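Input chain follows. Return structure tokens only.
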Amino acid sequence: MSAAERGVRWGIVATGTISRQMASDLQLVDGAEIVAVSSREQAKADEFAEEFGIEHRFGDYRDLLGADLDAVYIGSPHVTHFEIARAALMAGKHVLCEKPMGLSAAEVRELGAIAAREGRFLMEAMWMKFNPLYTRLQELLSEGRIGEVRSIDASFGVPFPQDGSSRWKAEMRGSTLLDQGIYPVTLAHMLFGVPDRIHADGVVRDDGVDLSEHFTLSYSGGRFARGASSMVEFLDLGASICGTAGWIATDPGFWATSKATVHTPFSPDVEPTESIETLWEGNGYVPMLRAVNGSIRRGELENTIHTTEAAAEVFDSLDEIRRQLG
């Protein structure tokens, strides 16, 4: 019986907070079943399996890849994403990989080539692009609600505790740009596409870990997107999309919010301000997981909302920002 008929059997690699949230949300998706989990420590895999009612549990992801399952979600530290995603694709599994999917545009494109050759689904878990709020906002922009869109402002800065986690470790390729900055860059690509020019500056430790940065992505006709990220200070956590007839401001946590306000103070036919709120399901990953699960069941190798090339183009920008940071 195929995945289209019986549903998709999932394995989860890693048992941290994000994997727990994903597992909880995946259980809300019709036609999806979690059948296996792996962790570097067998005891953690066992604990996770008991929590979510998972039958098979492994102390090594390579053993999980040999199990009878269709797809894997990879929630391990980002320095391991490329290696594990490549191994999963080569083992004949479909892959949903936590962002960032690699450490460079070249790695992302290499994974895309492997997926195409092996005939397997591949996607970076950029859940923001599946958020119902952004679907609604893109509809409003297409309708010309705020006129011609001219600029975007978005930032993600939080002073995270220096707890020894991977974000602070050079050997783990710790990076606030890859962890937080990927969201404002992705938002710019969503709405404006590939930039013509990039200017970036920031603070980088001697060991190469970037602590904060700000950047401007410039486009034709004077359009621009400004972004910033930091793991040592707070930055405005909202996003603004500005046009010739008004602007849209999201609530804080722009990458994961269900609320925004549309401002059109000079438009005679609509209210000057309108609050937008969309449905929030589970931990917020359900729309993405539903879309991915559906793509796999239909035999698709990509989901059009976030293709591998779209992820690679974002990484082209991230690579240039990092190059300018030195």
